[in-house]
Design goal:
Elements: H1 20-57, H2 68-125, H3 128-171, E1 175-179, E2 184-189, E3 192-193, H4 205-226, E4 234-235, E5 245-246, E6 282-283, H5 290-296, H6 298-321, H7 333-337, H8 339-353, H9 356-360, H10 376-382, H11 401-409, H12 415-429, H13 484-489
Antiparallel strand pairs: 1-2, 2-3, 4-5, 5-6
Length: about 525
C-alpha cells in the first residue's frame, strides 16, 4: 500500500512515519491479529455449545437398566479421590501452620536477643571511659614489667659476655707491661710481644706469625661471646688449613669452601651459582722477613699488608661498637697500628674502669622509674657498653635502627687506603738502597777493585789493621758501590789498580776546594729507595 501524500511504498523498518497513512499501515498487522483471535473464539464457542447440547440428549445412567454396579464403583472411586485430595490439602495446611509457628518463634527469639543486647550495651556504656582507662593502664604496666624483666635479663647477659671476654683474655695472658722512664707500655699475648704495625720491618717472621695467630684466635672468641659478626671474616686453622687467614670486606660471608693460600683451589660446583666466584683469602702469617718478602714476592707482601690492615680494622670496629674509644677517633694510622693497646682497652682496661653494673646504675640510662629503656634515642645518648649491641639478640640488635645509627656515627676508613699508608710508612722507616752487601770472601787479594770504593780502610794497609791482626776492613762499613761515572769522567792516565777513597780525587790527592774536579766525578751516586 502506498501513501497518498508521499506516494511511496510503506516499509516498517526503513521508512519512518511521515503521514497518517503510514500510521494506519503500522497498525494494520495488529488489527489483523485481533480479528483472527475473535474468529477463533467464535469457533470455540460454537463447539462448546454443540457439545453441551449433545450431553443433554444422553439418557440418565440411573434410569437405564443393567448398569448400576458401574455407576456405584464410579461414585466410590470419586469419593476416594476426593478424600485423598482432602487429606493432602489438610497435610499441606498443617505443614504451613507449623512453618508459620516456627518462624514466629524465631522472630520472638531474635527480638529477645536484640532486647538483651540492647540492655547489655546500655549497661556496658555506663562507666566505659573509666574501664577503658583502667585496662590501658594495666596493659601499660604489664608491658613495662615485661620490658623491665627483659632488660634485667639482657643486662645480666651483657655482664656474662664481658666476663667471658675478660676471662679468655686472661687465659691468653693478654697484659700490659710498663717500661722505661718516661713510662711506655708494651703489650704481650701468650708470653710474646704483640707486634706494632709500625715495627714489623725489624720483627722476626716467627714472632709476627705467632702474635697474629694469638690475636686472631682471641678476636674470634671475643666476637663469638659477644655474638658479633666482624666486617672482615676470619678463618681459623682447621683441617687442611694450618694457618689463619682473613677475607676482604666485600668477600666476607659470601663464599663456600676456600682452599688454603698456596694450595690448589677447590673446584666449585658448576650448578652452584651463588659461589661461582671463589675469593682469595689474605694470609695472617709470614714465612720470611717482611723486607725480604717485599723484594722477592710483592704480591704476597701486598696481601699480607692488606690482611693485617683488615685485622686492625676488625679490632677498631669491635672497639667502637662496644663503646671503647680508640685513640682520638680520627681514623689515623696510629689508631689502627696499636693492636695490643686496642685489644687491651677492649677486653681488660675498659671492663675494669667501667663495668656493666656501673653503666646499669648510670642515671643517664634510667628514665626515672628504675626501668632501663631501650629506645634508640636514649641508647644513642647513653652510649654503648661492653656486650650491649650484638647480632645474636633482638634486644639492642646491631642491625636495627639504633645499631645502624651507632655504626653510622663512626665512619671507618677505606682498607685499601689504610694499607697504602702502612706500606708507605714501612718503606720510609726501612728504605732499601741500591747497593749490595759483600761477604768476607769477596775481599781476597785476587779481587780487583777497579770498579769499587772501599769505605772504612784499604785492603792491605800496613799498620791500620784491627785488633788481633784482623784486617781493617772488617771494622768499617763494607759496601760496594758502582763508580762507573768516576771512571768515565777521569783522565786516561788514572791507575785503575788504586782504589778511589772517599774524599780524594783520581790521583789520590785530597779533593778540596782548590783541586780541580770535573762535574760528576765525585765518586758518589744518588741512591734511590725501592718501593
Amino acid at each position: 500500500m502506498s501513501c497518498d501524500i508521499c506516494h511511496r511504498a510503506h516499509h516498517p523498518n526503513r521508512l519512518p512515519f511521515l503521514c497518517t497513512v503510514d500510521a494506519r499501515n503500522e497498525l494494520y498487522e495488529g488489527r489483523v491479529a485481533n480479528a483472527r483471535i475473535l474468529i477463533e473464539a467464535e469457533e470455540l464457542e460454537s463447539r462448546v455449545t454443540k457439545l453441551l447440547s449433545e450431553s443433554d440428549t444422553i439418557p440418565n445412567p440411573s434410569a437405564t437398566k443393567g448398569s448400576p454396579r458401574t455407576y456405584i464403583e464410579n461414585c466410590i472411586s470419586e469419593e476416594h479421590k476426593a478424600k485423598e485430595r482432602t487429606e493432602r490439602i489438610i497435610a499441606s495446611a498443617d505443614k504451613l501452620r507449623e512453618e508459620v509457628a516456627a518462624v514466629k518463634r524465631e522472630i520472638e527469639e531474635r527480638k529477645a536477643g536484640i532486647a538483651r543486647k540492647k540492655s547489655d550495651l546500655v549497661a556496658a556504656s555506663q562507666g566505659i571511659t573509666a574501664r577503658r582507662a583502667r585496662e590501658i593502664e594495666e596493659t601499660k604496666k604489664a608491658i613495662k614489667m615485661t620490658r623491665y624483666s627483659w632488660d634485667r635479663e639482657y643486662d645480666a647477659m651483657t655482664k656474662y659476655r664481658a666476663a667471658l671476654c675478660m676471662e679468655v683474655a686472661k687465659l691468653y695472658r693478654l697484659q700490659r707491661v710498663r717500661r722505661g722512664n718516661p713510662a711506655r707500655f708494651e703489650y704481650k699475648i701468650g708470653g710474646i710481644d704483640i707486634v706494632d704495625l709500625h715495627t714489623m720491618n725489624n720483627a722476626q717472621p716467627e714472632l709476627i706469625s705467632a702474635s697474629l695467630a694469638h690475636i686472631t684466635h682471641l678476636l674470634w672468641l671475643t666476637s663469638h661471646y659477644l655474638s658479633i659478626r666482624l666486617p672482615a671474616e676470619i678463618t681459623l686453622p682447621h683441617n687442611d688449613y694450618p694457618r689463619p687467614t682473613i677475607f676482604s670486606l666485600t668477600s666476607s660471608y659470601h663464599h663456600g669452601d676456600v682452599a688454603f693460600p698456596g694450595t690448589s683451589f677447590l673446584p666449585p660446583d658448576p650448578r652452584d651459582r651463588q659461589f661461582a666466584h671463589v675469593p682469595h683469602p689474605r694470609p695472617l702469617f709470614l714465612d720470611k722477613p717482611l723486607s725480604t718478602l717485599g723484594k722477592e714476592d710483592p704480591q704476597t707482601y701486598n696481601s699480607f699488608i692488606e690482611a693485617i690492615c683488615l685485622l686492625a680494622y676488625d679490632v677498631v670496629w669491635l672497639c667502637r661498637t662496644q663503646g671503647v674509644s680508640v685513640g682520638d677517633n680520627t681514623n689515623s694510622l696510629e689508631d689502627f697500628a696499636s693492636l695490643g693497646r686496642n685489644l687491651y682497652n677492649l677486653l681488660i682496661n675498659f671492663s675494669l674502669q667501667r663495668n656493666p653494673q656501673q653503666i646499669a646504675d648510670d642515671p643517664a640510662q634510667n628514665n626515672g622509674t628504675g626501668i632501663t629503656s631501650n629506645a634508640p634515642a636514649e641508647l644513642g645518648r647513653a652510649g654503648p657498653r661492653m656486650g650491649l649491641y650484638s647480632h645474636g639478640t633482638a634486644h639492642t640488635f646491631l642491625g636495627s635502627a639504633a645499631g645502624n645509627e651507632l655504626t653510622r656515627n663512626f665512619k671507618m676508613p677505606n682498607v685499601a687506603k689504610l694499607a697504602d699508608k702502612l706500606k708507605a710508612k714501612l718503606v720510609r722507616e726501612n728504605p732499601v738502597p741500591e747497593w749490595e752487601l759483600l761477604e768476607d770472601d769477596a775481599w781476597t787479594p785476587d779481587d780487583a777493585l777497579d770498579d769499587g770504593v772501599l769505605i772504612g780502610g784499604t785492603r792491605n794497609t800496613p799498620g791500620k789493621g784491627g785488633p788481633n791482626g784482623v784486617p781493617a776492613h772488617r771494622f768499617g762499613i763494607e759496601s760496594y758501590m758502582s763508580v762507573n761515572t768516576v771512571k768515565s769522567g777521569s783522565s786516561g792516565d788514572t791507575n785503575t789498580r788504586v782504589p778511589h777513597v772517599a774524599g780524594t780525587n783520581g790521583n789520590g790527592t785530597a779533593g778540596g776546594r782548590g783541586g780541580e774536579r770535573e762535574k760528576g766525578t765525585s765518586g758518589w751516586t744518588k741512591i734511590k729507595p725501592r718501593y
